[in-house]
């Protein structure tokens, strides 16, 4: 009050100088008025619990979108499953994960309640859908097995059509130590390996080299090891090639690694549920923050300091 009174009686040039210096003083010293505002009291660890899974989802969404780009550029190497193009699966899943991860990260960083609600609710819906899919997969496991058999046989028919598809099938058969969907006879579906009299190929009644049993002493792959393999008796076939199908081998692998697979799925489910609960808690805490006032002690001190310096500066100018 005193500083304003002194400034009033100063010459016009000095009043202009003080008015010109007031904005920088306000910026340096602090606000002029104490405003009723709010401050976030939510722990940073809560926002990190939401942002962390969001960042993980963003990472894997990028991987899926990258896989979609690869599949799109190598579309001929992927066969259709009952008229469904798998490239759209990569696109949809990757896009949904990107949107979800973006909402979680930005919502946690900016404390945006709408994005946090969207992240939590959508993640809860996805968890419910995954749980439903798991139950349906257990109930309709025979139907899923038939669809997998149908998918593998379609790829067997197109084995020589694309080098990428051929490498994928060879890798699968070598890794699972299997041949065909349910046995080596499934290769009778391929025009190069069938046993019909009209087939003049040297690979007639044979199997790809990836079906052959490996000799640890041999370093060089014999690409002709599967020739005429299916013309031999079944006892002799077991010495030369794998006679078990890839579908039974996959089921056996799941049974042998059931603990690891179950642990991975349980871990993903716990991560989803934890993120959902933390997101909802974060939203509730942000909404309740509206009733918590700030601590005005520091702004009040700066406000008084500005007034004191302003008064001293005005007295100094008046004495000149």
Structural summary, described in words:
Belongs to the tetraspanin (TM4SF) family. Pfam families: Tetraspanin. Its main location: membrane. It is a multi-pass membrane protein. InterPro entries: Tetraspanin/Peripherin, Tetraspanin_CS, Tetraspanin_EC2_sf. The chain has 320 residues and is an all-alpha fold. The protein has a domain at 1-7 and 43-142 and 259-320. The chain is built from eleven helices and no strands. The protein has helices at 2-8, 12-29, 44-73, 86-110, 113-139, 141-157, 163-176, 234-240, 246-256, 258-288, 297-318. Helix 5 runs antiparallel to helix 10 (258-288). The chain is elongated and about 80 Å long. The two termini are 21 Å apart. The model is unreliable at 1-10, 14-18, 20-52, 75-84 and 294-305 (pLDDT under 50).
List keywords for this structure.
320 residues; mainly alpha; 0% strand; disordered N terminus
How many E-type strands? Answer: 0
Rg over CA atoms, rounded to whole Å, is: 36 Å
Structural class: mainly alpha
Beta-strand level of the residues, as a percent range? under 5%
Count of alpha and pi helical runs: 11
Low-confidence stretches: 1-10, 14-18, 20-52, 75-84, 294-305
The averaged pLDDT comes out at: 71
Q: Helicity range of the residues?
A: 55-70%
Gross morphology is: elongated
Summarize the biggest pleated sheet: none
Order of helices and strands: HHHHHHHHHHH
Distance between the termini: 21 Å
């Amino acid at each position: 009050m005193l500083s304003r009174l002194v400034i009033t009686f100063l010459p016009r040039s000095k009043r202009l100088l003080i008015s010109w210096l007031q904005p920088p003083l306000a910026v340096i010293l602090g606000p002029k008025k104490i405003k009723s505002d709010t401050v976030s009291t939510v722990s940073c660890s809560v926002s990190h619990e939401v942002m962390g899974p969001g960042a993980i989802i963003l990472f894997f969404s990028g991987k899926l979108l990258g896989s979609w780009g690869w599949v799109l550029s190598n579309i001929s190497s992927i066969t259709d499953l009952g008229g469904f193009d798998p490239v759209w699966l990569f696109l949809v899943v990757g896009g949904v994960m990107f949107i979800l991860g973006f909402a979680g990260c930005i919502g946690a960083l900016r404390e945006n309640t709408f994005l946090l609600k969207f992240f939590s609710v959508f993640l809860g819906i996805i968890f419910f859908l995954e749980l439903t899919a798991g139950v349906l997969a257990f109930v309709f496991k025979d139907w899923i097995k038939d669809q997998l058999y149908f998918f593998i046989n379609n790829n067997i028919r197109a084995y020589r059509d694309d080098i990428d598809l051929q490498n994928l099938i060879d890798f699968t058969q070598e890794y699972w130590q299997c041949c065909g969907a349910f046995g080596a006879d499934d290769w009778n579906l391929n025009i190069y390996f069938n046993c019909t009299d009209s087939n003049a190929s040297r690979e007639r009644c044979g199997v790809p080299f990836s079906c052959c049993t490996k000799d640890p002493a041999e370093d060089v792959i014999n690409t002709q090891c599967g020739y005429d393999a299916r013309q031999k008796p079944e006892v002799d076939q077991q010495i030369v090639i794998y006679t078990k199908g890839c579908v039974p081998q996959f089921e056996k692998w799941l049974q042998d690694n059931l603990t690891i697979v179950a642990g991975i799925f349980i871990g993903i489910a716990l991560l989803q549920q934890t993120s959902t609960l933390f997101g909802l808690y974060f939203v509730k805490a942000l909404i309740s923050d509206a009733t918590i006032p700030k601590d005005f002690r520091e702004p009040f001190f700066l406000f008084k300091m500005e007034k004191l310096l302003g008064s001293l500066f005005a007295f100094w100018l008046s004495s000149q």
